[in-house]
Design brief:
Layout: H1 3-7, E1 27-35, H2 38-48, E2 66-71, H3 73-78, H4 83-87, H5 91-95, H6 101-104, E3 126-132, H7 135-151, E4 155-164, H8 222-225, E5 229-238, H9 240-250, H10 254-265, H11 283-287, H12 298-301, H13 312-316, E6 333-334, E7 337-339, E8 356-363, H14 367-378, E9 403-405, E10 412-414, E11 421-431, H15 434-441
Antiparallel strand pairs: 1-3, 1-4, 2-3, 5-8, 5-11, 6-8, 7-8, 9-10
Helix pairs in contact: 2-15
The structure holds protoporphyrin IX containing FE.
Length: about 450
């Protein structure tokens, strides 16, 4: 694989939506649709394609907003994609997220039977992710989309969820998110860690070699697969009051409460990483995009005395730390954002509001990407030699697990961790390239 091959990455065909870093401020919405009539479904695609910018353009939304489109396996079927092509998609994508619940730890309160309707149902066919610079322009764009939907009676809008980024860029637990993402070789899509080698584009997009210099398996025909990516979508509800109460009950002081919270995440609320700011928050560091992700673990923090081995960010991507396995093989692009109102600072009582993040993870291989990260790194601790621990923040804890904070002279342990994040539902989607969308729209069946 020569650098020239990488330069051929067809950015003008790749959908910008989830590949580009988010603009600094935006309002967004996810719309889910059911396709009852293939012709109408294809007509809707034809209408939406002009609204989809390519990754070759600017990451800032156009004045009137823009969209990204992805399809579930059943959506591809509902649009009339031929059987032999459908059969060429990977088994876990064909099965859909709900069918993978046992592997993903979506049990108990996160079990598909308890998901918000229609999430996980067979009639989730199409997802449109709309983005605009502010709520007013988003509404205008959505009105247009809703009107287009009314004009094509064979497609029904079955779910809509607003999402946004606060000016503080913090999510409901109070921490800045969306800091760490990979650079993609030859794409002009920059990563955020200067110490992390760029990834081959085939880790994230179909049609290109991955880090093993192998072409990942692709569905057929090539025109459908090329420049596509698998998108994991999950509506993750955060139990903020319970999380705050738990921290308060285990901390020795307010200062200790802030430290324990940072140890759960691996960063401080400002985004400053524990690896670089082990003792207290450093808002300047957190706000500095050139420094807030410029770190590795092996040389300075091999034992996790700064950032615990089991902290959310270190589990989710252990960088160069010594673990069982190779972190680089399982990298995803993440583009999550918030939904629901924030629980005001300092409030410890639950107000009953639904809040959390809409999680989006992109990869060329679902088994290697999300499914591996969720099942092995978030839900298990074998890879870091702590088999009985899960991710303290986002793992499916059940009050029988603990979290170890390495420190001297003796480690600290907090026990009986409850579940702070509940999956309200989701789906595996395929985000085709723009040409591929045109190909689907032009099918005749
Ligand atoms: C409500 C649920 C979640 C919350 C509140 C949350 C929050 C965060 C925060 C605050 C960060 C640090 C900011 C950054 O490094 O960009 C982060 C990083 C990350 N999270 Fe999550 N997260 C959630 C769920 C998940 C899930 C389900 C996964 C994967 C299955 C995941 C994977 C990652 C990864 C890969 C990173 C980047 C780690 C790195 O590169 O250093 N997160 N998350």
């Amino acid at each position: 694989m020569s650098p020239d091959d990488q330069a051929m990455l067809e950015l003008d065909d790749i959908q910008a939506g989830l590949v580009h870093p988010r603009p600094t401020r935006y309002a967004g919405a996810v719309l889910l649709g059911r396709i009852d009539n293939p012709r109408d479904g294809r007509e809707l695609l034809r209408r939406v394609i002009p609204l989809i910018p390519s990754a070759a353009g600017s990451p800032e939304p156009h004045q009137e907003g823009w969209a990204a489109v992805a399809l579930s396996f059943r959506g591809l079927k509902a649009l009339g994609v031929p059987e032999d092509s459908l059969a060429s998609f990977p088994a876990e994508f064909q099965a859909g997220m709900a069918a993978r619940a046992a592997e993903l730890g979506d049990t108990g309160e996160s079990a598909p039977e308890r998901w918000e309707q229609p999430l996980g149902r067979d009639d989730v066919h199409l997802a449109i992710y709309a983005l605009a610079p502010d709520a007013a322009r988003l509404e205008e764009a959505l009105d247009g989309a809703r009107e287009a939907l009314r004009d094509v009676p064979g497609v029904a809008l079955i779910w809509e969820q607003g999402t946004y980024m606060l000016p503080t860029e913090r999510t409901s637990f109070g921490f800045k998110d969306g800091i760490s993402n990979p650079a993609i070789e030859g794409s002009g899509i920059f990563g955020t860690n200067p110490q992390e080698e760029p990834f081959m584009s085939g880790v994230f997009m179909l049609g290109y070699p991955n880090d093993s210099h192998a072409l990942p398996p692709m569905p057929t025909p090539e025109v459908l697969a090329r420049n596509g990516s698998y998108v994991v979508f999950r509506k993750l509800q955060t139990r903020v009051a319970e999380y705050r109460q738990y921290l308060r009950s285990r901390a020795k002081s307010r200062e200790d409460e802030a430290l324990l919270a940072a140890k759960f995440v691996g960063r401080w609320p400002s985004g400053a990483p524990l690896a670089l700011a082990p003792e207290r928050d450093d808002p300047k560091l957190g706000a500095d995009p050139n420094r807030n992700n410029a770190f590795l673990y092996a040389a300075d923090d091999a034992r996790g005395l700064k950032c615990p081995l089991g902290a959310h960010v270190r589990r989710a991507y252990a960088r160069d730390a010594k673990i069982i396995g190779v972190p680089r093989l399982h990298r995803m692009i993440r583009r999550s954002s918030s939904y629901g109102p924030m629980l005001p600072d300092g409030v410890l009582e639950d107000d009953g509001a639904d809040r959390g993040i809409l999680f989006f993870g992109l990869q060329a291989n679902l088994t290697r990407g999300f499914e591996f990260v969720k099942s092995q790194w978030i839900n298990e601790g074998i890879f870091i030699g702590m088999p009985s621990e899960m991710d303290p923040l986002v793992g499916p804890n059940d009050e029988t697990r603990m979290f170890t904070v390495p420190q001297q002279p003796i480690r600290r342990r907090v026990t009986e961790l409850p579940q702070f994040v509940v999956n309200r539902g989701g789906e595996y989607l395929f985000m085709p390239g723009r040409r591929a969308l045109g190909w689907i729209a032009g099918l005749d069946s």
